[in-house]
Amino acid sequence: VVRCFEPSVVPGLVQTEEYARALLRGVSFDLPPDQIEDLVRVRLTRQRILTGAGGREPTRLLAVLDEAVLHRQVGGRAVMRAQLQRLVEVAGQGHVTVRVVPFTAGEHAGLCGIFNILEFLEPHSPVVWLENLTSSFFLEDPDDVQRYVAVFARLLSTAADPAASVDLIRNVSREM
Questions:
Q1: Per-residue pLDDT tens for 133-165?
Q2: Pick from 74, 17, 9: which is nearest to 44 by CA?
Q3: Which residues contact 104 (CB under 8 A, 6 or more apart)?
Q4: HSE, side-chain direction, 13 A CA sphere, residue 109
Q5: pLDDT below 70 — which residues of the chain?
Q6: Strands in 7-78 per DSSP E
Q7: Which residues pair with 57 in a beta bridge?
Q8: What is the value of pTM for the model shown?
Q9: 13-40 residues labelled b (16+ CB within 10 A) or e (exposed)
Q10: Taking the CA atoms of the chain, what radius of gyration do you get in angstroms?
């Protein structure tokens, strides 16, 4: 299971190729085009965990997004419209849930920033994966992990339910 909170961009596991390319060009502006393309390929390959590639059961994804993610036009209107449609499509799959924290929620627990909680089969314990411009790292200390689990629970209580979230995504998509 992957539980993620994204305050700024669509989670990498559900990005379209065009959205990923535009995003990576924006944040990795100092990399040559061939390295950007390598990063796009890696991101798209990583998405296979959601499809059950290799005969494995698909990974469950519970993504909570700040509403700002829906309005930030990464790649322009057409790319963003396609990306929002992709979010609606994946939210219709039984193993993927997308929830949106609406602007009307005001301040909320996710204002601490992006994080991912990765849960594995027994006997492995969950970890928190944090990512920034130049690196990423894992938090394994049970107290740290529990704190992020508590923040995620608060986000779920603040976010719109799955159906209302999909409606919101569709409405924003129509405005593009």
A1: 788 899 999 999 999 999 999 999 999 999 999
A2: 17
A3: none
A4: 16
A5: none
A6: 61-66
A7: none
A8: 0.92
A9: bbbbebbbbbbbbeeeeeeeeeebeebb
A10: 16
